[in-house]
């Protein structure tokens, strides 16, 4: 390399560093906007939420929303994808294990019960021990109360999970996984876990707790497993053996 080329190389390296730093700052701003929007959309709903308030809460300017998401609707969609992605990361392994077992043919009842327990435990852990779970739940519940186009994202995430649970419960109860009865059983299984997230203040007040700690989570899971045992007729203890 000639001496005359060295300043150009140095300038090129500085440019690359600048571009990387700019990209990092852009990604950080995007994440701050999603976090702020998750909180505000969940508390106020899509229509009432102000993009100006979201930008201010994120420490960004209003133009950053347009730059990163195109519009308020685009930001709303990004939040829904963020929520389902985060939940998926926490329960995805157990769903994958179940899908693999089901792809090999219907597992026996002991294996099906074990897979069901793994999914429910992962789901409960995600809902109760993850710091952001309260905001996820608030956003999802808001979408049930005031459905918007992003409900399709939530349904698109939950429908395959529900289908896996239906197949496992169908095996355990000798019932058609596509029947209404099996579908309702699955919703009751999900509901008994969700209550400890979406109605947690009520649970804490009535149970005389300040928080749901590790010992409480263990007790909740024990009771949920006992309820599932009664529904499906195969005990969690048998599945462990």
From TrEMBL:
Pfam families: CecR_C, TetR_N. Residues 1-27 are annotated as: Disordered. This is Transcriptional regulator, TetR family. SUPFAM superfamilies: Homeodomain-like (SSF46689), Tetracyclin repressor-like, C-terminal domain (SSF48498). Residues 27-87 form the HTH tetR-type domain. It comes from Kaistia soli DSM 19436. Residues 11-27 have a biased composition (Basic and acidic residues). Keywords: DNA-binding, Transcription, Transcription regulation. Transmembrane segments: none annotated. GO terms for molecular function: DNA-binding transcription factor activity; transcription cis-regulatory region binding. InterPro entries: Homeodomain-like_sf (IPR009057), HTH-type_TetR-like_transc_reg (IPR050109), HTH_TetR (IPR001647), Tet_transcr_reg_TetR-rel_C_sf (IPR036271), Tscrpt_reg_YbiH_C (IPR015292). Residues 50-69 bind DNA.
């Amino acid at each position: 390399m000639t001496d005359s080329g060295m300043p150009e190389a140095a300038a090129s390296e500085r440019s690359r560093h600048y571009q990387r730093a700019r990209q990092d700052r852009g990604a950080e701003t995007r994440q701050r906007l999603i976090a702020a929007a998750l909180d505000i959309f969940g508390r106020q709903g899509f229509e009432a939420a102000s993009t100006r308030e979201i930008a201010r809460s994120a420490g960004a300017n209003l133009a950053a929303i347009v730059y990163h998401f195109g519009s308020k609707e685009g930001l709303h969609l990004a939040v829904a994808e963020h929520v389902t992605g985060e939940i998926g990361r926490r329960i995805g392994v157990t769903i994958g294990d179940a899908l693999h077992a089901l792809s090999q043919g219907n597992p026996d009842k002991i294996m099906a019960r074990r897979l069901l327990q793994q999914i429910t435990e992962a789901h409960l852990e995600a809902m109760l021990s993850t710091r952001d779970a309260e905001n996820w739940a608030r956003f999802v519940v808001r979408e049930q109360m005031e459905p918007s186009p992003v409900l399709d994202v939530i349904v698109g995430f939950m429908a395959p999970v529900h289908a896996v649970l239906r197949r496992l419960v169908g095996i355990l109860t000798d019932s058609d996984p596509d029947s209404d009865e099996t579908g309702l059983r699955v919703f009751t299984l999900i509901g008994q876990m969700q209550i400890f997230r979406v109605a947690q203040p009520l649970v804490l007040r009535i149970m005389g707790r300040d928080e749901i700690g590790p010992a409480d989570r263990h007790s909740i899971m024990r009771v949920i497993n006992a309820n599932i045992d009664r529904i499906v007729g195969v005990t969690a203890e048998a599945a462990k053996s």
